Amino acid sequence: MGPTIIFWYEFASTYSYLSAMRIADAAQRAEVEVEWRPFLLGPVFKSQGWDTSPFNLYPAKGRYMIRDIARTAAARGLAFQMPATFPGNGLKAARLALAAKAQGEIGGFTRAVYAAAFGKGLDIFDDAVLTDCLLSAGLNPEATRTLASDPAVKAALRANTDEAQALGIFGAPSFTTGDGELFWGDDRLDQALAWACAKTPAKS
Fold first, then answer.
1. What angle do CA 66, 115, 113 make, to 5 degrees?
2. Please, what is the average pLDDT of the chain?
3. Do residues 157 and 179 make contact, with C-beta atoms less than 8 angstroms apart?
4. What is the mean pLDDT of residues 157-166?
5. Does the pLDDT of residue 204 top 50, yes or no?
């Protein structure tokens, strides 16, 4: 088995947007497989005594984040618009992403949701917005929603969140490698890919 990284992301995360839009191409160039792993940051923040994003708790940090994302997005040719409500509610999108994964389309759906959330500033808890995202990824909205409502999918999302906490993940995006190394932040994606390659035994 070749090198692999797990991409941990939350749909309300601005910096996860930056990673989601480039990770497939970056991983392909590095010859690394990516496992897309949506989870929820709410329980993670709650465990640290926060009731919202640190970008809201610390306004100066929040203002910097918006400017930083705008600069980076522009440099990468990405649109950027903050949604009216931040952080948004990514629960529906995360469950749909797991349903999309079962259909082999998690990457396309994830990118569509991020493009809606931070490319257009739309509310990703809105069913009409999510329908457009599903269609954009070539998925049947009704069938995918039915799958997303399955107790097994809901349990899988809870398990992802629990595992993220157990691994010490405190923010998104995060990346973990086969040997348990943790990298946090879009600016660590390339390092995570390089680490995964270096720590994977060469094929004999």
1. 115
2. 95
3. no
4. 97
5. no
